[in-house]
Design brief:
Elements: E1 14-18, H1 48-60, E2 65-69, H2 79-88, E3 93-98, H3 103-112, E4 117-121, H4 127-134, H5 139-151, E5 157-163, H6 171-183, E6 187-192, H7 200-206, H8 211-219, E7 223-225, E8 235-238, E9 245-249, E10 262-265, E11 270-272, E12 280-282, H9 293-303, H10 324-327
Parallel strand pairs: 1-2, 1-10, 2-3, 3-4, 4-5, 5-6, 6-9
Antiparallel strand pairs: 7-8, 8-9, 10-11, 11-12
Length: 329
């Protein structure tokens, strides 16, 4: 049982842990100019011993699931060692979010690592649209990687796409995903475009409400499905004639934060209570020795009283999040 609880009664069995800010894609909604080194923060990314101590503390606090994020987490040479460390520390479910770079070559290693789940970002099934969004012509290798994962009987495959007006938000786009999940056991979710500190112009140009996809699902008789306690924020829909599921992540919707169940660790050792919050502290000074673990646990527990009831995205407040790669969106 999670010991992490805030003043609103929400429990937190789920941690999103970024291990790098570096990304090798150039997605328009996140890093349109590619990864740029933040010269104002010369701290190195969390190293293995620090990650191990973090995992040990969170395991003691009842955390059952850690999702490894970035940037692109697989760019780290010790990526597979990190999965092993989290498992050894007692984390039951370890999953990753990835852009799918070289997924066809990594699929077997991912399965062998004991990974429990994978979220892959694919913003379009149209090769040209995918290339224009990401700056990479890699859709075929990613789809091949998904097929390999399925052939290896890897169960928990999710695909995320950011919903972009006049780019991938037409009925034709929705139908292409419908055909994809009809024959693939994959959960596909549209994420409503979120405003960050440096993407206001892009947000104004391409934001569209996720209601458009919900209306499509309602019209086509998809059935809403309830969630498990360590699930993410997706509203999931099923159809008995399809192998996969559809989902919607709608951060601007009413009561989106009511079921929040996750905290975040940045790649440089900051605890963030919310992706778009203004509150966050460095806990890295307590990750240096094994005998600091009890003090670290007390610090994390003490921070819970500062978690707010909601983000304020609808008011245009983006908090400390300059772009999604800096916090592990």
């Amino acid at each position: 049982m999670s010991l992490l609880q805030d003043n609103f009664g929400r429990k937190f069995p789920y941690i999103r842990m970024s291990i790098t800010d570096v990304c090798n894609f150039k997605c328009g909604y996140c890093l349109p100019n590619g990864y740029q080194v933040d010269k104002s923060d010369n701290r190195k990314f969390l190293h293995l011993d620090e990650i191990k101590r973090l995992a040990m503390v969170f395991s003691k606090l009842g955390v059952s699931k850690i999702r490894i994020t970035g940037g692109e987490p697989t760019v780290r040479k010790d990526f597979f060692e990190i999965i092993k460390i989290l498992k050894e520390a007692g984390i039951k479910k370890v999953s990753i979010t990835t852009n799918g770079y070289h997924l066809d070559k990594k699929a077997q290693m991912l399965v062998d690592s004991g990974l429990n789940g994978i979220n892959i970002s694919i913003d379009s099934l149209d090769r040209n649209t995918f290339k224009s969004i990401t700056g990479h012509d890699r859709l075929p290798e990613i789809l091949k990687g998904i097929q390999i994962l399925q052939d290896l009987n890897f169960e928990n495959i999710k695909v995320n796409a950011v919903l972009l007006n006049n780019i991938n938000a037409s009925e034709k786009d929705f139908n292409s995903w419908r055909e994809f999940i009809k024959i693939n056991k994959v959960d596909f979710r549209f994420i409503e475009l979120m405003q960050t500190g440096d993407n206001l112009d892009y947000f104004r140009k391409y934001h569209i409400s996720s209601k458009i996809f919900k209306e499509y699902l309602d019209k086509n008789n998809w059935i809403y499905q309830t969630l498990g306690k360590d699930a993410g924020p997706s509203l999931n829909y099923i159809n008995p004639d399809y192998k996969g599921k559809f989902g919607i992540i709608a951060p601007y919707s009413k009561d989106f934060c009511k079921s929040c169940n996750r905290l975040r660790i940045t790649s440089k050792g900051d605890l963030r209570l919310c992706l778009f919050g203004n509150t966050g502290i460095s806990i890295r000074h307590l990750l240096q020795k094994d005998d600091q673990i009890e003090e670290l646990q007390d610090l994390i527990l003490g921070q819970m009283k500062f978690k707010k009831e909601s983000h304020y995205l609808e008011l245009g407040e983006t908090g400390l999040t300059k772009n999604l790669s800096t916090t592990g969106g």
